[in-house]
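Reviewers asked in the last cycle whether our approach scales beyond single polypeptides. To address this, we selected a multi-component target totalling 634 residues and predicted its structure end to end. The input consisted of the following lines:
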Amino acid sequence: MRKRLIDQVSRLVLSSFLMLFTLTVFAEETAGDPAKGKSLFNSNCASCHKLDKKVVGPALAGITEKRDAEWLFSWIRNNQELRESGDADAIAIFEEYNGSVMTNFPQLSDEDITNILAYTDAAPAPKVVPVERGSGSASASEDTSYTNLYILGAVLLVLVLLLAKIKNTLKQVKGDPASTLIEEADVMTRTALKNPRIVTMLVLLVAIILLQQSYVAMVAVGITQDYQPEQPIKFSHRIHAGDNKIDCNYCHYGARKSMVSNIPSASVCMNCHTYIQEGAETGTEEINKIYAAVGFDPEEGKYIEDYEEQPINWVRIHDLPDLSYFNHSQHVTAGNVKCQTCHGPVEEMDEVYQYSPLTMGWCVNCHRETEVDVKSNAYYSDMHEKLKEKYGADAKITVDMIGGLECGKCHY
Amino acid sequence: MLKRSFLHIAFAALGSALVLTSCHDESTFRGWEYMPDMYRGPAVETYQNLSKDGSSDSISAMLPVEGTIPRGFMTYQEFDPGQSGLDSARAVLTLPANIMANAETMEESKELYRIFCGHCHGDKGDGQGVLVKNEKFLGVPNYADRDINLGSIFHVVTYGKGVMGSHAAQLTPEERYKVALYVMQLRKELTGETEEEVVEAEEATTEAASDSTAVLTETEQG
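The resulting structure, written as structure tokens, was:
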């Protein structure tokens, strides 16, 4: 009897729980799922709308408070039809955004749209504080290595003083007169300077060091390797070419077809940065410098009319002297040389530095070692036959064999 | 006496050490030049800044005279950048006769697409490029979901649409047509249409273009 009662009670509790559960699930369904809405929003709407800013279309946070659901549904499904039916709001919006037509989304189900609207209603997620990386940490590590050196020096000094103290104590125990560190050092240097062998060795050592240092300094004249100037905008190649894998040729589009690999114009920056208005590491500070140069208002998402554009004074790093000729397209397009061969791992550099020495020896060395791809290049077919005759059928054809070492190729 | 002489030596050593180490590498210093007139000729170099104080625009990076046309440039019909232009480009534009939709062109098109489009639109054209996956750039459509043709693609690449900017500076008109060809091929692959049409079109253009090949090579060389 009692057992039955318990059974009944437990069943009741269970079923009420079940009902409550289905109710909450149902309630959630009618209100829409912001998480699902986010992924739908990102793939369908985000190219023209942001939550908090005008992009191509209006900001959409809290849009359900402005418009009723029915209107939004019909606008999203087919806004052209809505405008043609003479809906005043729809026409007003269309005019406000200079007649840019919003894509119709007939494929979105009722549930999809509800989810999207739930996402636009939900408060935007708190922003993740950017982690400091790159140049900051690099200089920090340099600092620590210096402090390590100082600490080491201090420890050594303490050791020396300690040993001197111990020696003095021992002397006192023996009954000899104590001497200071300086006196002892002086006695030692005096005896050493009286020894001609040591003096000769010292003079030789100093001479070698001086000669070596001056050789290094003289050889470095005219070589700008490791030159890393400060640029007007803290543009990071690591973020653009490394993390986001944008091809070098996207911005430096001149490298494929002309002598000079161009410094990208600000319009190339704006291809992405009309949309991406906040950097991962520097926030809006650096990107705003592009806007200041071209006259773009990020709040309105529009270019300011009659704005006097300012050039961005990038500092040129790689600059060959006037006495030598270098052509990018010849190397990039005809030679299939990777950018990194000469410019180093730019996709890992926050600030670019000159990786290669750009000396003549460096050029010549590469021309001697680099094999020419003669097989897939019709341009060389004739020449290839002659080269085969001269060097044998299996010989490796390098750049110097096709005239890559002739003076007039680079100096004229 | 003892102390003083030692101090002299110590000072001399310290001084010479300072002199020797003071010439260390400063990465923002470009380095010394021997005979600058050999390095900097009188001819204007690319991006050379000729103003004395370095503040004004360099004369080598100035815009060319209005109406200047680069050598070997293929002229193209201009349209209104907005929706009406897009519609008329969609209706009017076809592949110019000097571009052949053969395997060689498609290989070049693929490379151009990889360089200029892939990081947003994805290598397959499904809108899942690296920038989209990294949540930098959102809402890039799948080509299969959009009603596009060769003309409309050319228009969008030339003038931009929505948040996509104009790529006219980066791609010549000829390259834009080539990219459009590849986008159409990707779209066919995405929508699962058969490739027969492509082959047919290819044959037709090959015939039509065989006599205009000479024109193409001429412009390319120019």
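The CA atoms of residues 43 and 181 of chain B lie 42 Å apart. We regard this as preliminary and will revisit it once experimental data from Aim 1 are available.
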